[in-house]
């Protein structure tokens, strides 16, 4: 999808949302015009919204679940800066849902502002906790059912 189309995303395009407060360390003092720092947003906030959804809506219990999600890809396109102090609203949706893998899209919005500030992508491959290999039955029915609720267009991909 063209980056220009992604700039038109709105909060309503995402089925699950969470808010986060920015921190002082989110400011880039070397270049105040850059967008949210990649390390802060991708490392902490993107996996937080994904894992919150998996735990609350898909039955994942990280300490005991027999499968785990391995992050095999993440990226982020930045459109506008957000600094401290601000409240960031993250939106989550599923772009592709396969047998063992899922591609999430995360929209980053600043509270009370319409325009998307950044859009990230995050890919999980669900594997057996012990073998670290995908299971023959894939991610399992409850996980897949929960993720289908966020799938764009409500369809599975062929992954």
The main sheet orders its strands as 1-3-4-5-2
Number of helical segments with 4 or more residues: 3
Proportion of strand residues: 25-35%
The structure class reads alpha+beta
Overall mean pLDDT: 84
The biggest beta sheet reads:
5 strands, antiparallel
Give structural notes:
By secondary structure, the protein is of the alpha+beta class. It is elongated, with a radius of gyration of 16 Å. It has 3 helices and 5 strands; from the N terminus they run H-E-H-E-E-E-E-H. Strands 1-3-4-5-2 form a 5-stranded antiparallel sheet. About 5% of the residues have low confidence.
Short description:
With 159 residues, the chain is an alpha+beta fold. Helix content is 20%, strand content 33%. It has helices spanning 3-6, 38-57, 141-148; strands at 16-21, 67-78, 87-97, 101-110, 116-128.
Topology summary:
Elements: H1 3-6, E1 16-21, H2 38-57, E2 67-78, E3 87-97, E4 101-110, E5 116-128, H3 141-148
Antiparallel strand pairs: 1-3, 2-5, 3-4, 4-5
Characteristics of this structure?
159 residues, alpha+beta, five-stranded antiparallel beta sheet
């Amino acid at each position: 999808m063209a980056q220009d189309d992604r700039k038109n995303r709105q909060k309503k395009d995402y089925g699950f949302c969470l808010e986060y407060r920015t921190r002082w360390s989110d400011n880039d003092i070397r270049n105040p015009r850059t967008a949210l720092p990649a390390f802060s947003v991708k490392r902490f906030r993107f996996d937080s919204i994904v894992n919150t959804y998996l735990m609350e809506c898909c039955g994942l219990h990280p300490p005991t679940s027999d499968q785990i999600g391995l992050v095999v890809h993440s990226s982020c396109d930045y459109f506008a800066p957000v600094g401290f102090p601000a409240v960031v609203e993250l939106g989550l949706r599923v772009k592709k849902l396969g047998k063992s893998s899922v591609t999430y899209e995360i929209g980053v919005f600043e509270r009370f502002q319409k325009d998307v500030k950044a859009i990230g992508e995050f890919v999980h491959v669900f594997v057996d906790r012990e073998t670290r290999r995908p299971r023959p039955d894939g991610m399992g029915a409850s996980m897949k059912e929960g993720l289908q609720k966020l799938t764009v267009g409500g369809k599975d991909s062929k992954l």
